[in-house]
Each structure stands twice: as C-alpha cells, then as structure tokens.
Amino acid sequence: MNKMQAVNLKDIQIQDPFWSKHIELVDKEIIPYQWEAMNDRVPGAEPSRCLENFKIAAGLKSGVFYGAVFQDTDIAKWLEAVGFSLINKRDEDLEQRADEVIELIGKAQQDDGYLDTYYIIQAKEKRWSNLCEGHELYIAGHMMEAAVAYYQGTGKKRFLEIVCKNADLICRTFGTSEGQIKGYPGHQEVEIGLIKLYHVTGERKYLDQAKYFIDARGVGENYFLKEMSDPDFQHFFPEFANYDPSYSQSHLPVREQTTAEGHAVRATYMYTAMAELAYEYQDEELLNACQTLWDNLVNKRMYLTGGIGSSGILERFTVDYDLPNDYCYCESCASIGLAMFGQRMAQITREGKYMDVVERALYNTILAGVALDGKSFFYVNPLEVWPDSCKERTSKEHVKPMRQKWFGVACCPPNIARTLASLGQYIYCVDSESIYVNLFISNKTKIRLENKEVGIELNTRFPKENSLQIAISNVPVKGVNLGIRIPDYAQDYQVTEEGKVVEVCKEKGYALLNLNADGVFDISFKAPARFIRSNVKVRANTGKVALVRGPQVYCLEEVDNGANLSALKVDTDSQIEEVPAREFGGSIELRCRGKRILEEAEELLYTTKPLQYKEVEIKAIPYSYWNNRGLGEMSVWLRR
User: Where is the Non-reducing end beta-L-arabinofuranosidase-like GH127 C-terminal domain (predicted)?
Assistant: First the structure.
C-alpha cells in the first residue's frame, strides 16, 4: 500500500478566475469578521465568549464558563485558518494577534498539560468523566490541527509545545495499561490531530495513540453506556438519555461497520483517521472497511450537492435513500469531513472517483456555507426552502432561510474558513515519481521529486469553460508520471500537445502520461448542462429532476422565478441554454422551458377542477450562490 501526499501549501500559488475570490475573502473578510464574532463585537449576532472563557481559565478574569462545552474549538479552527492564511501571505498584524491568543491558551493550560476551559473553570474534578458528551478529546484534536497549521505557516513552535504537552497527557491517560482509561472520544477528531502531530514531530506515540482510539471503539462493553450507568453521571445533552451507540459509531468495531451511521461529522472524521491509519499500519482490513463505508455513504446516503446527514434531529444519517430536501440537515462540517475522507482515499487508491465527490462537496455544499461577503453563514444546507415554513418548534426549525451572522454553536464558519484557506492541498497528490492533478484550479506550483524541483503551471477558466492547460518543466532525467483526473461528468475527454492528440492510458479515473521531457498539454472535454434524476428509491425525488453542469448543482430562486417554486414543471425535452451570468463573478446560469401551474382564483383548499398552466422560462443559478440576493424560496429538484 503506497500513499501519495498533498503538496506543501507553501509551494502552491493559486490565481484562479473562480476560486481566488473565495480564497481572498478568507483573508480580507472571513478571518477578521470571525475575530470580531469571537470577541462578541458583531451587533445582533449570538455571543461567542470563546476568548472570555480562556481569559477566565487563565485567571485573568473572573466569571463562569459560557457556551457549548466544546466552545474552545471555535478559536482553534480560527487559528488553523490563520496558519493556512499566513502560508499564502504574511501579515504581521494578524500573526501578532494570533501569537497573543496562543499565549492566552498557554496560560489557561494546566501544569500537567490539560486544556479545556469548561472543565478548568467549572468542574476540574470531573475531567475525563464524560467522554461521550464532554468533548475534551475533540477540542484537543482541533488544537493539534491548528498548532500544526500555525507551525507550517510561521515556523513558530510555541503552539506546538502547548498541544504536545496536552497530547502527552492524553497518551499517559488513555490505553490498555493498568491505571489508564480504556475509553475513546465521543466526538472523533483527536485521531486526526494526533496523526498530524506525528507527521510534524516524528513522535510515534502520537500515531499509536490514534490507532488505539480507533481500535478500541465499539469493542466489548460500550464505554459510553458504561459511563452513563454511574449514578453520578450527568448529561450535557438531555436527548442522550436513551443513548444509541450508533450515534457515535461505537455500536460495532470499526472494521465491522458497513453502513454510515450516526452523527455525520463524527463519522467522516473517524473515516478520515481510519484511512490514514490503514496506510500507516498497512492494514488492508481497515482500508477495506473504509471502502465499504465510502460506497454506502456516497451511493445511498449522499445528496446530489455532496451534503450528508439527512436528519435534523441529532444531525445524523438515517437509512439508505432517505434524502428529504426541505428539512434535511447536511451540516457544512459534514461535507468538509467528506472531502477530508475522500482526499485520503484518493491518495491511497489513486482512484479518481474519490476526488469526483470531493470536488462536488467543495463546489456546492461547502461553498454555500458562506455568503459572498464573508459575513454570514449556513450551518444547515437544505435543497429546498420555503421561508415562511421555517418556524421555531416545528420540524423545520433547524432550517435557516437566510445565512446567520454567527451561531451559539459555531463550528461551521471557522471550519469553512480553514478549508478555503487550505484549498491547495486538494489540487495535487504526489509521490517520488508521479504527479496527479485532482482539481482544475489555476495555479503555479513547485513539486519536489527526489532531488528535482518540477514546475507545474495550470491555467483554466473552469468550471465556466471545460478546458485547461498544464505546463510541466524541469522534468527529471528518469521521467515523471503525470495523471490528470477524468471527471465522471466529462465527455469526449482529450489530451493534446502542440495540437496533436496524445494517446493516454486511462486508469482508475485518470489519464496517465509518462513524460521524459518538459511539455505543455491541453486538456478539453465536454460537460454540458443536463437533467439528472435520482434512484427511484429516493422517494423525495420521484418524478423530479435537477440541473447539473460539471461539478455544479443548480437551483431555482424565487427572485428569478416567482413564488411557489413547487408549481413549476420543467420540460426535460427542452434545450438547456447556458448563459453568462451578470452576477456571481462571471458564472454560468441556466435557462430552460417549463410550465407553471396557475393558482386558483377562489383559493379553494381542495377542488375537482383541472389544473391550468402557462408556459414559462425557468432560470437556475449555482446552488453555492443561493440566498445572496435576499430572502426567498429555493429549490434544487423540479417536477418533470
């Protein structure tokens, strides 16, 4: 088993007609805005008090803990985004601000390395007593990821030293030896952090600890049920009173799990760690489990947009093909977890199908999670919205028809920030003799192959245009293998050099070339807009179609098509017109013909009268940009 690697972000410069505006938004708007939010300086936004908690824990202020038990992760993910941002562009003021936060975190840390402001402030004697709901290990994982990113962005080790002290405590505390806690995290994440910490420090114990947490999960007596049997146990979340271990993927040993169950973010974070550990320990059984889970997740439990986790109750998976559109959850963090999982699987298997899904998640659900001004966010990503019906204390109370300034539980906004800031990690994967191009994003990159620094320049106007040019220079004498992904939507895929068609080997979703000299290659394919239907088992979409162009899913908005979008029926025999959009940074909008059911003049609730129709033009925009023009209805799926 040989795993390819992502290219160091320091070696990638992205200048892309589509993505640059989103990446630059992270530096110019999202990071500063989220700093204000975490300092409770955004009028009308839910308070965070995240930094206040650290000041109290550090003894700099008096007070009580505020917020969710895992509130510390907001600043951790913000710091990770800052680290990635500083890789791309140095900013002394931002770096100084981050250094001050890191020192604050260090002051809050306990002498033995413990770091969790809730327990430090509220319940020191209760630490590690509620692994199911307490999120101590989840917080630790995000702190580890942030410290690694900050070290890579600045070369500073202070944050690393803090999290290593915390990681050392975790290694001493959890395991199979006498006196250790034989438990595992209720919310997976620390496994990813430990693996990243291992790669940066070379400390094998961190990798082994991540393996322990994965291997112990679901084995023997369920640890969380055992915790809850203690008479003194107190729930943070009352809904866990009748706890279902599948919610935390602890119902079975991970190698025996065959369906994506439970909380979608927990699941994908765990699957990501499983894939990493399968490679590190050359564990074929674990890799097979990852492939089985991926197939179930993608082929039976994923939305067209790359959204996952259909239930608004407990943010979880339900059963195969249960994919409702108007009250689904599809948390932004879950799609980020899906992209992380898919990236690792692509690196191990060299199969393009994994990056097809990563691309879908990035262009749709993940990007939809933040407004074009960078100052409001979606936590939930439905595929159909009727604003008037999104009322509190109903089945749709979790669905927000407008992006929110902030959230009391704000895991998604900084998660989106760190993902966009590190987008370059998804473009390529490499090993000592191969370079694979996964995403079509304009960039200039230096890739070190043994003692050679190979240069790649990729230029494209994708997804507006389905062509790209790849110039590769400084090819080593022994040659290099170049793999270029063939997307699952591509038709008439062709590679040319100096106008001549190049014969390529097509394998596992990539066009493979063996290069012995520098060259410039043009890749083109057709990806026309088309109507897509669901498997008939997806009951919510029976008799409906969606509009898709390349990786982008399209939707209808009330501002373009009028109210009551459910009264529209699309003519699937009509030609889909692709029109340059006047909005959204030069994207393509789609137009096609259809009919609208006319409303009854007398407004009878029920009637035997036949329906009346009028011919209409239907206009669709990329799903990622919905709700940037005000409140209104939205729908992805249309009646045929």
Answer: 530-639
